[in-house]
Amino acid sequence: xxxxxxxxxxxxxxxxxxxxxxxxxxxxxxxxxxxxxxxxxxxxxxxxxxxxxxxxxxxxxxxxxxxxxxxxxxxxxxxxxxxxxxxxxxxxxxxxxxxxxxxxxxxxxxxxxxxxxxxxxxxxxxxxxxxxxxxxxxxxxxxxxxxxxxxxxxxxxxxxxxxxxxxxxxxx
Length: 172
Prior knowledge:
Blueprint: H1 4-12, E1 15-18, E2 30-39, E3 46-62, H2 64-72, H3 77-89, E4 93-111, H4 114-123, E5 133-139, H5 143-168
Parallel strand pairs: 2-5
Antiparallel strand pairs: 1-5, 2-3, 3-4
Helix pairs in contact: 2-3
């Protein structure tokens, strides 16, 4: 588990250099390839490039009734009150599911300047994979936090499109 200051540092030092053109598909599974580039803290000019995949399951509509059942399990009075408020508003929200496939994760060490490595990684993305790929500059300690930040930012970018698609099909 990361200390709070390490989490904050990772969040503040995550930069998406190349963002995928695609968003999370409303009615299917979406796969993204990521390249996470981080500088080793105790080695000058040593850069780690991680290459892996994130799979995003299609978003699910969570109704107020279902949300209240989820919230009530093991929670106290504040959660129960919040669930009642959701039911009264008839508010639905989307639930996203992600899996970071560790089996697809690889990494290499490169001896160069950070900016040069980022530029090279960006140029080496196969043309056929550009729309579903991301290059992320992050930190070595807490690189998973950087990857999660990218993932949650992608959810935020996709939410309005997903809601529109659900409404267009009469599901919301």
